[in-house]
Amino acid sequence: NAEYGVLCCLVSSSLSSNQLMKALILVGGFGTRLRPLTLSVPKPIVEFANKAMILHQIEALVKCGVTQVVLAINYQPHLMTNYLKKYEEELGISIVCSKETEPLGTAGPLALARELLDDGSGDPFFVLNSDVICCFPFAELLAFHKAHGKEGTIMVTKVEEPSKYGVVVSKEDGQILRFVEKPKEYVGNKINAGIYIFNPQILNRIELKPTSIEKEIFPEMASSGQLYQMELPGFWMDVGQPKDFLAGMGLYLHALKQRSDPKLTTGPGLLGPVIIDPTTKIGNDCLIGPNVTIGPNCVIEDGVRIRDTTILEGCTVRSNSWIRNSIIGWQSTIGRWVRIENVSVLGEDVQVDDEIYINGGRILPHKAISTSVPE
């Protein structure tokens, strides 16, 4: 997006050459909401639109001038660091793990990583939840935060049903007055988007123990006039569970379509927006899209219909099958004349026989399915 690029450049060039911007990503634990995919890999490296979820965030941070990313993690840190090693070199960034021995909530990890985040310069650092997908306007957030000069800024997003969430109530200039959890009466429609920037002083508020930043730290900052909000432009989704993962994929693909992004795939039989890896082979008379991503080295045979679906690397979909609103895990094989729908999630290496119906099924890795899963 051109205007983001320009602003990133302006903010980056205004940073002093010796300033090292940092970011903490709250990776957390087991990824149970996205099982069975997370039985094979940690959630942040499940591919979202053919790229590991966490890479969408790291690449956007790098564009804004971040040079060190700290991953706050308490599950399988070696898998994450091994996966991200090559991207450290590619992106010219340092990625380090801050390993929790017990879950520390959403604020405790900042205390644990204090020495990594606060280098004595007083420079602000970003904090974000690893499940969030959006346009990541970090440069605008940094500029807004520096302009008001207070301790913290959180990004907010508008929602249609605020009664399901914690609502952020603020002044017109963005200063946050209070938070209202699941309001019964309308007080506003802006909610915490899980993307923040803080000055190092916030670390003096947080002890090294399980702590909620949303329920314990933010209200305290708001009451002392130290917390501001900035509204996130464009789409936003927490993609930590299958239904929202698929909805977020649709929003992401439509955002690419609006700016005619070259990442999108076009061609006969494709109803955009779709992303199909160039190594994947598509048969004749298929109809694919809208809102479909297909990873590398897949084979889609003749007469297949796919929409609102993610197909991960190395899958085969045999002829005349129909897949809608589902996630197909790595190296899986879908037989002929199969129908899969209604937020079904197949784990890694699932083999589905011909003429099977799967309706909202969660299939564990390495299973062979020879009877239908109608509900």
Describe the protein in words:
- The chain has a 7-stranded mixed β-sheet with strand order 5-4-1-6-11-8-12.
- Helices cover 23% and strands 29% of the residues.
- Helix 1 packs across helix 6 (138-148).
- It is α/β, with parallel strands linked by helices and 375 residues long.
- The radius of gyration is 22 Å and the shape is elongated.
What fraction strand?
25-35%
Category from helices, strands and their pairing: alpha/beta
Report the biggest beta sheet as strand number plus sense, adding barrel if it closes. 7 strands, mixed
Helical residues, percent: 10-25%
End-to-end span in angstroms? Answer: 42 Å
Overall mean pLDDT: 89
Individual helix count = 8
Strand order of the largest sheet: 5-4-1-6-11-8-12
Strand segment count: 30
Unreliable spans: 1-18
Q: What is the 3D form?
A: elongated
- Whole-number radius of gyration? 22 Å
What descriptors fit this protein?
375 residues; alpha/beta; seven-stranded mixed sheet; six-stranded parallel sheet; elongated; disordered N terminus
How are the SSEs ordered, and which strands pair?
Blueprint: H1 2-14, E1 21-28, E2 47-48, E3 51-52, H2 53-63, E4 66-73, H3 77-91, E5 94-99, H4 108-112, H5 114-117, E6 125-129, E7 132-134, H6 138-148, E8 152-158, E9 166-170, E10 176-181, E11 190-198, H7 213-223, E12 227-231, E13 236-238, H8 242-258, E14 274-276, E15 281-282, E16 287-288, E17 292-294, E18 299-300, E19 305-307, E20 309-311, E21 316-317, E22 322-324, E23 327-328, E24 333-334, E25 339-341, E26 345-346, E27 351-352, E28 357-359, E29 362-363, E30 368-369
Parallel strand pairs: 1-4, 1-6, 4-5, 8-12, 14-17, 15-18, 16-19, 17-20, 18-21, 19-22, 20-23, 21-24, 22-25, 23-26, 24-27, 25-28, 26-29, 27-30
Antiparallel strand pairs: 2-3, 6-11, 7-13, 8-11, 9-10
Helix pairs in contact: 1-6
